[in-house]
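Entry 14. Structure prediction run on the chain below.
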Amino acid sequence: MTEIINNRIFRLVIAFGLLCLLVGMIQSTYAKYVSSADATGMLTIAEWTFKVNNIDVVSGSNFNNTLVPTYDTNQNIKEGVIAPTSTGYFDIVIDSSKVEVSYNQTITITAGDNNTVSDLKITGYKINDGDTVLFTGTNNSITTSHNLTDTNNINTYRIFIEWYDGYGESMNNAADTSAASNGVASVKVNLNFTQKAS
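Output returned:
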C-alpha cells in the first residue's frame, strides 16, 4: 500500500512539474503576441504653395488688386481707359515652383458680379509665348495639367478682352453712353488647383 501511495505521490509530483512547465511555456508564447514597441518617425509633407501675380493664394486667395489691364493703343480713346471698340489684356502669372506634387489647374474667366457692360467680352488667351487661342461660346475656361517633372514652373496666362461694338452687340449707343457715366466694366477670375490622383 505504501508503494501505491508513493507511486501516486510520484505521479502527482511529475504532474505538478509538467503543469509548471506548461504554464511557463504558455506565458512565453503569450508574451510573443503582446510584445510592443513605440517609435516616432518624422514624415515630410509635400509643399502646396501657389503664387498668383506674386500673391500666395493658398494662405490668402484674394489677388484682386493684381489684375491690371493693358489696353491696346487707339488714337480715338484715351490711354488707360476702356470704351466701345477697346481691346486689351491682363496677365495672370502662376508660380508653382514650390509645389511638390503633380496637379491639374483650371482658370475660369467670366463677367464680374458687378459688371454692367454686357458687351465686355473675354475673347481668348495665350500661355507664355504660345499661340492665341480664341474662346468659343460661353465657356471661358483654361484647363492645364502639370506634372511633378515639369521644368517650367512659372507660366503667364494672357487673357484678351474687348468692349465689342458691332453686329450682334447687346448695348446700343445710348447704353454705351450711360455706361460711360455710371457703368462698371469688370471680369471675375477663378483659379482651381487639384492634386492629381495617383
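DSSP finds two helices and ten strands in the chain.
Filed with the rest of this week's runs.
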